[in-house]
Amino acid sequence: MRRRDFIKVIAGSAALWPLTARAQKSSSVRRIGVLMSTASDDPLSQAYSAAFAQGLQQLGWEIGSNIRIDYRWGSGDTERFRKYAAELVGLSPDVVLGTAASIVRALQDASRTIPIVFVTTIDPVGSGLVASLSHPGGNATGFIAFEFSLSAKLLELLKEIAPGVNRVGVLRDPTVPAGSGGFAAVQTAAPSFGVELTAVDVQSADAIERGITEFARTPNGGLLVVGPTSSMSQHRDLVVTLAAKYRLPAVYHSVAFAGALLTYGANSIDQYRRAAGYVDRILRGEKPANLPVQAPTKYELIINLKTAKALGLTVPASLITRADEVIE
Questions:
Q1: 311-321, pLDDT tens digit by residue?
Q2: In this structure, is the dihedral angle defined by the CA atoms of residues 269, 169, 157 and 146, taken in order, positive or negative?
């Protein structure tokens, strides 16, 4: 099954998983808090929560029987992150799943003792979330979604699929390490590809529209989206729409950007399933301080030939043969 179809299937099945258990809590029921950076009605959010719940079920946990899951949805709003982090900590969960560095930071501000498992997080050491990848040392551990070196790879792929591009608009959130670090990695690589970079901030829909519209006024441009930040995830459909409107070849880090020309990144849905394994180990007595932070085990390359045709691009055969999925 293709990944985009899998996302639809698993998102549809999310309705079968109650977001909060109906049964009363007893001494045998363990409590899990989940703070998502996205909105509750986002199909990808539902796919993530379903994958996490299914991962728990495979390990013997049944929602409404021996576990209860309390979900909160941040919708890309850092104020909500802080509010809901305090709210979840107030429920005295046995463990909390957090889905972004800013969320993990808010959870740690609320409690330094409640175990935290994070996913889709970048540079947890540089962000101060853990002491080291091999020995986290505190109350948090989890899974890295993106390494800064990947930003340079995205630039390489953009030049491979659209060799005529000599100007690159880099969409990034400068307020978080994922944005600033990703942009720095692209800056380092840019001279070897002969491209001029323009930073486009993504903290709001208006800023994205203004930035891309201004960038598109000069020819031979392309777009890169670096780092899976909350703001970027919230506005991903807008970015894809604007790229198509202005006929800008664009490369993204996630399959979540439906209709994208090319995506290259880690399987984020798999991270939620793997996170269930860490939650299970913590519920059975292990400490997050002793569970190493894990990097992605595989990056997936997906190419959309329909989008390439609309942009007048011929995708090199060498690139197609390396793809994990080709959308026709």
A1: 999 999 999 99
A2: negative
Instruction: Phi first, then psi: give them for residue 147, nearest 5 degrees.
Output: -110, 145
Please write down the HEC assignment for all residues of 233-284.
HHCHHHHHHHHHHCCCCEEECCCCCCCCCEEEEECHHHHHHHHHHHHHHHHC
- Give CA torsion, residues 230, 234, 238, 244, to 10 deg: 60
Phi, psi of 70, deg, nearest 5: -105, 115
What gap in Å lies between CA 320 and CA 40, rounded to an integer? Answer: 35
Gap between the Cα atoms of 285 and 232, Å rounded: 36
Structure tokens at 150: 């990947």
Higher pLDDT, 133 or 176: 133
Buried b (16+ CB within 10 A) or exposed e, 72-90: bbbbbbbebbbebbeebbe
Residue whose pair of structure tokens reads 């190493």 in the numeric block: 292
DSSP string, 51-89: HHHHHHHHTT--BTTTEEEEEEE-TT-HHHHHHHHHHHH
Query: DSSP states of 114-155 as a string?
Result: S-EEEEEE--TTTTTS-S-SS---SSEEEEE---THHHHHHH
Fold observed for domain 3-144+268-296: Rossmann fold (3.40.50)
**Fold topology of 149-252:** Rossmann fold (3.40.50)
Mean pLDDT of all residues in 126-132? 93
What is each CA distance from 168 to 145, 185, 215, 216, 231, in whole angstroms?
Answer: 23, 14, 9, 10, 20
* Rounded alpha-carbon distances, angstroms, from residue 89 to 95, 113, 155: 9, 10, 41
Q: Specify the pTM.
A: 0.83
Token pair in block for residue 134: 């091999």
Q: Which residue has the tokens 């991903």?
A: 236
Residues in the chain: 328
Would you say 114 and 96 are in contact if contact means Cβ atoms under 8 Å apart? yes
Per-domain residue ranges for the chain?
3-144+268-296, 149-252
Beta bridge partners of 31: 68
